[in-house]
Specification:
Oligomer: homotetramer
Helix content of chain A: 40-55%
Radius of gyration of chain A: 17 Å
Order of helices and strands of chain A: HEHEHEEHHEHEHH
Strand content of chain A: 15-25%
Largest interface: A-D, 42 and 42 residues
Number of strands of chain A: 6
Structural class of chain A: alpha/beta
Largest sheet of chain A: 6 strands, mixed
Distance between the termini of chain A: 30 Å
């Protein structure tokens, strides 16, 4: 059985990119993102495995509507796609609004569509050998539906999904601060365990795929 | 039984607003929206009942991310919400991308969320006595899933859904022009029938609700 | 505005059928169905409007797999379909298992498929002028997704869905008795309100449709 | 890069179990299952890698409603679960009815729920180190939604999902025979390719996991 130590020694530093679909941009002041807080919980775990992690907060970018990798002047998606392509681990992190992932998460999915067109035409995906994860927060309902929708997309576009690769937290915390929510989630055994297992499995498969590419014929 | 004639005489002109979630804005030149073409097929039918119809192409507006009715400076949603509130019939028209409605359709749903908060707090919805419809286009798959997701939202926020209130068209027409697609859809008996029944049922319930408000106690 | 009194006087007694998709059959002894308890809460409200209500517990019948109205020897669905066709109000009541309605609820949907085939071939549905409702219970997640899926089916097959026609309760009550859960749900303002509004709206539209059939041309 | 040859040499014979959710049982005579035909296409590919494959046609068994691994007298699920637990590769094969997997597929999901309870209580899943696949057929719509729902379940219960692990075929073939459909699907490049890639990826991960168990701490 592979131990955490062995995972650490398995190669150069892994890179994880979190696409954060919160509707709140950084300039929105006091308001913090619950999804970001839960993502940070996973990131703490990934760092135990020496993974370099970056959160890309989609609301802070001008991402044009469309289904091409580059939608022209002013479009800030191409830079984000560079980060996606350079990652070993790709995490979709989104709040739930009316049972679905956020409009910003959906925007990212639409903008990745050209990679699927490429896969369909060439039989090869530039996302092959990447491992996917999912982080979800919401007020009360929808976690499994959103997990399913995002899983369908990631699998179709060439990403591997390890077991227990999703973590979620449902609940309404209108009076929470970023700090108090962090503390609350870390203290909740179920959530902390889920984050730990998710990180462990993401790393296990990412290290394997780095050394053993999926055959492409 | 109510005839089309009786429907026409039943009162002042009804108003229908189509929120069009295509990713293509008007400035995108040669590209046309399949969803707009299918919406226009429904509109032709609604006009038979003397309904005043307007398509609001979301891609042409700057709609800020968020879940409030007004997200501040530069936000063009408030004007759209005025149109929504002034309508008898509200149609969500969207392409499918990866099994879901578009990011722009989701944006509209998020921005209507404050009306649901109001409903939860006061027990009353400003969308009560409105009738909802759904128009969907896609390349190959997802129509029923999207219909379900939008239906769940509309029902929860106070809108009535008549039977057969959705019309969809799946198919890939990379070489179609707007004119040829129009002709194609109008000629397809199944689609033309669905549009006709959808219009008939939307009008039937809209006229009823205008004269008979749903009791609010 | 129509008052509750006016609704009562509006005509002969309405009939509501609840298709109950719990996995527990009556012989299973001490075990009770949470979904049945929530359905009874709605039934209490419907009786205020003099509606005759019946719960059909699917688990107590031998419903053969298939997509025809009658699957031959030993099939007990035909009797259930008679009840469905004789109703003004049709409620789908189901627990959630892994984000979806139960296998028994899905079985009922499959067995109603022949009515849709009939609608497609003749343009007419034998479910037209019926009003639909949804009752959902689950441990933690999935209510909106299930509401959407069932709504898509009911609308497609000719049923009208009033606003707020769904009620749900999520929560794990391993030590509840039938009596204690009843009390708990009735005492929970949000659930009691939802059941009351659902009943009010179902009756409002059922009475209307009984006197004013949807035009079928 | 791993070649097909290397995969073949990687160890003892892998075992794949297909849970087939068609509504048609074997006794139903002339009627054949489209989902079975598509499953056989995948099986042909798996056999290239020397995988021992078995289709369990759920409609031929008496599988009691419930969420336990054993529902008592007459329940034939326990024997099926033995096969599931003895497999390296587990494929869910289902037709689509009204946007969802079949009632028989849902029944299997419900009956596997106790394994999830076990996972929640002990932190360990007896399905860990198994690889999952999905086969879907339908008349026209719903493949991605069903893929998402089943993916959510499989990931949550401990199964690994390789990229491109689903194959589907939508279309209405009322006059097809089993033989003609087989020929048709095998001749359709897109379907044949999808089956080949699915088999390749299932085997790639199954061989890896047999030699390298996911760490369980």
């Amino acid at each position: 059985m592979t131990t955490r130590k062995q995972l650490d020694e398995a190669g150069p530093r892994l890179k994880a990119t979190f696409l954060l679909g919160t509707l709140k941009h950084k300039r929105s002041g006091g308001d913090f993102s619950h999804t970001e807080v839960l993502s940070e919980l996973v990131i703490e775990q990934l760092r135990e495995y020496n993974v370099a992690c970056e959160i890309v907060r989609l609301a802070d970018y001008d991402i044009k509507p469309g289904v091409k990798s580059n939608m022209g002047a002013g479009d800030e998606w191409p830079g984000i796609q560079q980060k996606v392509l350079a990652s070993d681990i790709l995490v979709f992190a989104t709040p739930i609004w009316w049972g679905n992932h956020s409009s910003l998460m959906q925007r990212a999915i639409e903008r990745l569509d050209e990679l699927h067109t490429e896969l369909r035409e060439t039989g090869k995906s530039r996302l092959t050998n990447k491992v996917g994860g999912i982080v979800i927060t919401g007020e009360e309902d929808g976690e499994q539906h959103v997990t399913g929708n995002i899983s369908n997309f990631l699998l179709s576009i060439g990403v591997t999904l390890p077991p227990l690769c999703a973590v979620s937290h449902l609940g309404s915390y209108t009076r929470a601060t970023k700090k108090s929510l962090h503390k609350k989630l870390r203290a909740k055994k179920e959530t902390a365990d889920a984050a730990a297992k998710m990180a462990r499995n993401l790393v296990f498969f990412a290290r394997f795929l780095r050394k053993n590419a999926i055959p492409d014929t």
